[in-house]
Amino acid sequence: MKLDGVKVLDLSAFLPGPHMSMMMADHGASVVMVEPDNGVGEPTRVMGETYDDGTSVWFANIARGKKSYKVNLKDPEQQSQFLKLAAEADVFVEAFRPGVVQRLGVDYESIKAINPKIVYCSISAFGQNGQYKNKPAHDLVIQAMAGTADLTRGMDGAPALTPMPSADMTASLHALSGILMALYRRESTGVGDYLDISMYDSLLSWVPNVTGAIFAEDRQPVRSEMRSFGGNAFVNIYETLDGGHIILGGSEPKFVLNVLTALGGLDHIEDMRKPVGQQGAVISFLKNTFKTKTQSDWEAIFDEIDCCWSTIRTLHKALTETGAPTIKDPAGKTHIKSPIRFKDEPAQLSFDLPEFGQHTQELKGGF
């Protein structure tokens, strides 16, 4: 596999770091979960719903294929033993608040001193520097700070909780990308590097599609006029006769033509050439049209139209239908597959989950 031989020490917890290092493990890396010797370890071991055998579903989908090493880094003897392991590692991941790793003696400079080839990745809410660096935050707070929670208000304009961990996801992907870049560069230089991954910066890097008004006109975008928030007739949600919903999600001319032809609305073709925010006539036509039939009626109709559309499906349906990106382990537990699909060296998922501290003694002899 692509990452065979890569040795990873992951001191992070919850989602961004652990999910990232699991993707590395899926593709051959030797990943060690470094867990605090506090009797619990990784918090997700005991969070949320469980499989029939009592295993946390969350934990199973961030810890598969890893080893567990428990340590009290405040204990000089245990820290010394841990540093021997760090001297062998290729990648070191941590997600403490800025300054904590210095106090624990496992900061980048300390690890680099014993392992110049180390690729060291710090994942934090706001980065290692700047005005917010000491502010505690998880995903939802990051979304609120970054302004994306303001954009994703409900249709009534009131703030809404956003269950998708977008700050976690973007930070995880940027961490993986940066680590792989550094490992690639190390092949020619022989030295590693330090990555400062900010969840806040990571999330904001993904908003180029909604920054037009801000960068070009120095103003807050008007949500109802934005392409992805109701201003575009063909990127919108429409209610059906029975209270169901159809989403249109593509405004390319060919899709617009196909839909308006099928719905008898060709007189609105010119309206669709108007700027986003000025397509009220088309939106009204589509609202009135979709109200004439049930959701199932529209599903049958749209199955025959080449366009971007969907009903609003549940997460349960998406993860349980035939062809879903899931896989069952030998014990019958369902897991989410690796999304990185190589032709020649596909991921090989190990469903072994480490008991808390299971490999501590073994790893004292090294990777």
Automatic annotation (TrEMBL):
Assigned keywords, A-Z: Transferase
Keyword ATP-binding assigned to the entry: answer is no
Signal sequence coordinates: none
Is rRNA-binding one of the keywords UniProt gives this record? Answer: no
| Gene Ontology MF term list | transferase activity
Q: Which organism is it from?
A: Litorimonas taeanensis
- A Pfam family of the record is CoA_transf_3
Gene3D superfamilies annotated for this entry? Answer: Crotonobetainyl-coa:carnitine coa-transferase, domain 1 (3.40.50.10540), formyl-coa transferase, domain 3 (3.30.1540.10)
* UniProt name for this protein: Crotonobetainyl-CoA:carnitine CoA-transferase CaiB-like acyl-CoA transferase
